[in-house]
Each structure stands twice: as C-alpha cells, then as structure tokens.
Design goal:
Helices cover 24% and strands 42% of the residues. The protein is an alpha+beta fold.
Length: 137
C-alpha cells in the first residue's frame, strides 16, 4: 500500500486520537463533523444505522489504507464494513469519507454501558453538542 491518506469518519471510541495512537495509527487533519441521516446505535459495539432525520457526530481524520486495515482487522472489529458517506465539518465543509459500520444494527437486548460512558467522555472532551452527548446510552 501507499502512504496516500484518505478521510475516514469515526463516531465511536476511534474519535479519540489517543486511542488511535494506542493502535499505532497516526491520524492527520482532525475535523469535528457530523453525518445526517444516520443514528448512533450501541450494542456490544457502536455502529451507525441509516435513519431519516437523524444526525450522528464524530471526527474526520486522514489515514492510510494500511492504518484503516490495522484498525478494522483487530479482534472484535472484523465484521465492520466500509461505506462511502458525506460528512459535514463544523466549519461547513462537505467531506467525502469512508465510514466503517456493522452490516446489521445491534439487537434490542444488546447493551454496553461501559462503552457508552467512555464514548460520552470522548464526545465531551471533543466539545460536541451537550444534547447529543446526553443522548448516548
């Protein structure tokens, strides 16, 4: 692979560049962003589910293909698949990006309160809207 970087939209714990560094990934060009038409769902892990009228917040980072592969071949993340999306930066820039999602939404009986708490902390650290942070459960 090359060192060419592509934009990826991250809505879970990978929004935290410290978490990425722990996976030996150096995220470049960080931008706070959102995607319309998707709702964040947390089961054992987080995923975005197409939902008219919804909005999900996250970070856009520039990463290499190798770095994306490193992240999504890690144990427990193999089921995530890349999808092309249009993210919108908080500065009103439209950014085509890859977004990794699960092929199926978590079931209603799935929950991960610890993950949700860590995600709320990451969103707060990144200064996302308080009402969005409060909606994470």
């Amino acid at each position: 692979m090359t060192d060419r970087r592509i934009d990826g939209f991250f809505y879970g714990l990978f929004m935290d560049s410290d978490v990425l560094r722990g996976s030996q990934v150096v995220a470049m060009n960080p931008r706070r962003a959102y995607v319309d038409g998707y709702m964040l769902c947390i089961g054992r892990r987080a995923t975005l589910v197409p939902t008219p009228g919804a909005r999900a917040y996250g970070m856009v980072f520039a990463l290499t293909h190798d770095e994306l592969e490193t992240l999504y071949t890690a144990a427990g993340l193999e089921q995530y698949r890349p999808e092309a999306i249009l993210a919108h930066s908080m500065e009103d820039e439209t950014v085509p990006a890859l977004c990794y999602n699960l092929p199926e939404a978590p079931g209603p009986d799935e929950a991960n309160p610890e993950y949700a708490a860590r995600l709320r902390a990451a969103l707060g650290k990144l200064e996302f809207p308080p009402e969005y942070i409060a909606s994470i459960s």
